[in-house]
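Marked as duplicate of an earlier ticket. Keeping the data here for the record.
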Amino acid sequence: MSMKWSIIKYRNYFAIALCLIAICHTGTATAFTPALQDTTVITIHDTLYLPSPETESIAVSPVKPSRYDRRVHRYRRHWEALIPTHTKLQFAGNMGLLSIGTGWDYGRRNQWETDLLFGFLPKYDSDKAKLTFTIKQNYIPWSLQIRQSDFSFEPLSCGLYLNTVFGDEFWVHEPDRYPQGYYGFSSKVRFHIFAGQRLTYNIPSRFRVTARAITLFYELSTSDLYVVSAFTNRYLKPKDYLSLSFGIKLQLL
């Protein structure tokens, strides 16, 4: 009975204590509420969306790039233009049995290509195998996508290339041991023209490893010497002055 009387006697003090605890708890929750509502982040797949800022003004630095900064930017841009954009492997074409090299795509639609190729020529009836070097210029006027697929077709690719063979037995000017004008052409340097077609597969981004596209092509070519021979020797057939070659191109950039 004394315990019950004591609780009843001090009930006012208990009520005051409970009120103080409630006030402290409310103040603590209120103090942390802004921290819980500071930033809302919504994530969809790999994109992060943040709430728009209160102001849309964008601060632009008043400092303009110096002449040195502009020069460094031009310097880097020019050197980056020298990075090859593709590699090629070509079979036949009067530039060796097998030629491999690299090149650059440029133009508004990348319709121009310049290639540097080194070729291997087996010895056949000669004493030793030989190495060739080719500078090739390509022009591709059209590229047609095949419906909604990853394939595209280039109905025409054309151009010209210059080819040379390394070796002392080949010459640009006739040696003195021959009468002047005996041959009338160089045995070391050949000029060629060609025309062909291409089929390109654009690799989906999720499957790309080293290349973003693969192109298969064929070309029909002839050289300056073959053209002269075709006009001066009527008995020659197209197979005697036309060469068929095949190749593959890996688009790196």
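See parent ticket for discussion. Residues 1-7, 27-37 have pLDDT under 50 and may be disordered.
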